[in-house]
User: Fold these one by one.
Assistant:
Number 1:
Amino acid sequence: MRLHCITTLTFGAPSGIHLRVSDSLVEIARLPGQANRRAERPSRPLLRRAEVSEAEWSDWRWQLRHRLETLAELEAFVTLTDEERRGIAIAPGLFRIGITPYYAELMDPQHPKCPVRMQVIPLGVEEKVSPGEYVDPLGEDALMPEGASCIVHRYPDRVLFLALDRCAIYCRHCNRRRMVGQETGIISRAALEAGLDYIRRTPAIKDVLLSGGDPLTLSTEKLEWLLSELRAIAHVEILRIGTRVPVCLPMRVDAELTAMLRKYHPLYINTHFNHPKEITPEARAACERLADAGIPLGNQTVLLRGVNSQPRIIEELNRALLRMRVKPYYLFQGDPVQGTDHLRTPVGAGIEIMEHLRGRLTGMGIPHLVIDAPGGGGKIPVGPNYVLAWGPDRVTLRDWQHRTVTYVEPSERDCACPYDEVWRGGGARG
Ligand code: SF4
C-alpha cells in the first residue's frame, strides 16, 4: 500500500500502540501487523444469550472476551450477504471487527440494512478511498503536544485525553479507526503519566474529555486512578467521558462503576446512540444508573446514510433519549474518514432533519448539527436559516411553520454591562 506523509508515533513501550499521522494519501491505510487475530478460531463458541448462563451474559468482561470477530461467529448470528463476506475477508490488516454478543443480538439476522448490523459488519466498499477522505479526518495527530502523545489539544481551554485504544465494538464509521482496535497493548502508564503532566503544567486547561478507545472498558481501578489524578489538578474544572458502552455493553454500568464515578463530580458523560433500535431495556437501565449517580448525560449521534438519515428516525431517537434523561447534544455530519463514503449523508440531509425537529420537539431534544472541519479546525455549526432579512430597526424571520414574523429592535442598542467591572474586580463576589 502506498501512503503519503505517514509517520508512526509510539505510545509507551514496549507494548505501545502505534498511531499513523497523515493528511494526504492515495490508498487506504493499513493497520500495521493487524491480522484478524482470531480468524483461526476453530469453531463457533456458544455466544447467544439463550446458550449461556445469565451470570456470563451479564458479565461485561465475558462480553468483551467473546466479541464476534470471525466469519464463523458472524455467520452464526446473521445470514451474510456477499458484500458483507467481502468486507470480512478484507478486514485483516485493514480494520478491526468486534461486536459484543449483546449488541450482536440486536442485529436483524435476515435484513442487511438493519441499522445495528450496518454499524458493525463491514462491507467490501470500505476498501475504497473516495476524494476528500482522510486517515485522520480531524487532524488530531498534528495536535498532540511534544512528549504527550495521548493528548489532543485543539481548543485553548480543553483537551482530549486518549486513554486507551480498545472499544467494546468497532464501528464502521469511526473517525479514529486509524488507532482504535489494534489492542496491541493498552497505552502505557508512562504515556498516561506524560499526558497528566502536560495537563498539570498547562493552567489554561479547564476541561478534560477522556476518550480513545472507550474509557469505560478500562478496569474500574485504572479509570479511577486517571479520574483521581485529573481531579487533583486544581485548574481542571470539569471532566467528561465519551463512551458507547451504554449502547453496546450496558452491563458494564454496574453499581461498582457508578459508585466510583460519582466521586469525581463535576463529571459529564456523552453517549453515542445512533438509532432507536439501540435503546433496549438494558441500555435504558444503564443510562438511568448513570443519571441516578448525578452524572449529566448527553448524546452524540452520527448521521449515517441508510441507518438514521430520515427525520422521523432522529425524532424518535431523540424522544427516547429524553425519556431516559439523556440530552441530545450533537448531530454529527459524518467525518470524511477513509472507506466511509457509502455511509456519509449529503449535508442537506442533516439540515432537513434539523428543520423537521424544530417545533415538533422540545428545544431540549434538539441537538447541534455540526461538521467537524476536515483536516482540523473544530466543529462548525450548520442548520436551517431562520433570518430572512436584517434591517436597521427590524429583523425579518420565519418560524418552524414557515410563517414570516418581524422582530422590532429596541430603541437603545448599547449592550455594555456597567456592573461587569465591579463583578470582574471581585468586589461583589462572596
Ligand atoms: S466506540 Fe467510538 S471510538 Fe470506538 S469504534 Fe465506535 S466510534 Fe470509534
Number 2:
Amino acid sequence: MAKSDILSRSDLMELEIARYRKDNQPTKNEVDAIVNHHRAVLNVPRISWTRYWVCDSYNNLGIYCVYDDDTDRLHDSCLYCGHPEERK
Ligand SMILES: [Zn+2]
C-alpha cells in the first residue's frame, strides 16, 4: 500500500466530520481512504467501517466505529471502543 493511500489523521477527521454533518454518503474513494487509514493504524487486514455508531474512543481519530471483518464477523466489538454494532 502506497503511503499516499493512507489519510493523515487531520484529513481523516476532516473527512468524517464533513460527512457526518452533511449526513450524506461518502464516495467510494473516500470510504477506501478511511478504511485504509484504520487498517494502517490498527494493523488489521480487513475492517468494516460502518456509519451506524459514533465511536466513544479518543483513540479513534475518525468518528465511527470500526470492526475486524476476519475475527469479528458479527461486529460485536469495535476495535477502538469495544462496543457492538447493535446497541439495544
Ligand atoms: Zn467504537
